[in-house]
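Quick one, T. Sequence first:
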Amino acid sequence: MDSLITAAARALAAGDPFGALNLVALREDAPALALRGIAMAQLGDLARAKLLLRKAARGFGPREAVARARCVVAEAEVALAARDLNGPAKTLEAARILLDAQGDRANAAHARYLEVRRLLLIGRLDEAERKLEGLDPAPFPPALRAAHELVVAGIAMRRLQARAARAALAKAERAARQAGIPALTAEVESAQRLLQAPAARRIARGGERPLRLAEVETLLASKALVVDACRRAVREGDKLVSLATRPVLFALAGALAEAWPGDVARETLLARAFGAKHADESHRARLRVEIGRLRAMLRPLAHLSATKQGFALAPRRAREVVLLAPPGEEAHAAVLAFLADGEAWSSSALALALGTSQRSVQRALDALAAEGKVQALGRARARRWMTPPLPAFTTALLLPAPLPGD
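Structure tokens:
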């Protein structure tokens, strides 16, 4: 490796892509192409970065398997930044195994963090945690230690473990300062702000107030019966009843929780659950059927009783009933939750992350675009969707992931 390549690599490691390009911009050999690709990725030109990295991988000879593996890892990082979540995970894993076998521990660890970050984005938290097991970040450079702690914090936030997330972010902050890379420091600061921003609303006894992530964690661990509108579930302590696939039943549960300790009129329940403006006998019959189904599902936690006006919810052991609502009344909030990171997403990547059909995601994006809340970039398969990060609240509770105790 010549001196210019070495100097360019050091510039990239320090977060100076322009300095690296000044050294290798006119060169077409494989190492220079790889460094140019990484520089373009740092500058945000992800499409150009991908082309350069692929060209570099083809340029390395048959005895340069480690260099090709490093190109694979770099291309996987570009794909993750572009929110291309359908990339070949097996190729990245093979590259990681080769790098580990050849003694390149740092790049092998970087490949594993990329795998974990992808799993984190699509909500596969258990698998992400398994991949982190046994990986000690202590011997790694500061930038990799910060990446490790950011992943740990991300998993903790998705699991609503605010204390663990705060501790991991404190370690990430120290490592980022040692690394001296502004973009890394900014990423840590952004994650720290999420812990202090409103994450949900607590609605009980006719009043509401915003809750930070730590307060949500405390509420879920309390003796209250919580009807969680962020993840469509009803829980008390470690007991949980999921209504994620039963929207009508959850609409009824939410209305009953919001009115507790009072009751809810039948007309109100019909409007909330079915959108019925003028109820007839068929609507009332359907309401009785759905109330019966909800009563059966919630039997371990609460009972539903008929009143003169409608129905009321009463917890069996809990001291109170609380409705945990999203931080704002927003249509298609789950889609906005992913777009709030400020990255450009394809509809297919959003569908994979949300666990739903691409057509459903496209309808949501079209509706949000009509309201001016998202914007499209590019055309056809190259189309990406993005929106500026929402400054008023974090959206971790809207991202699909199992709740504690699931």
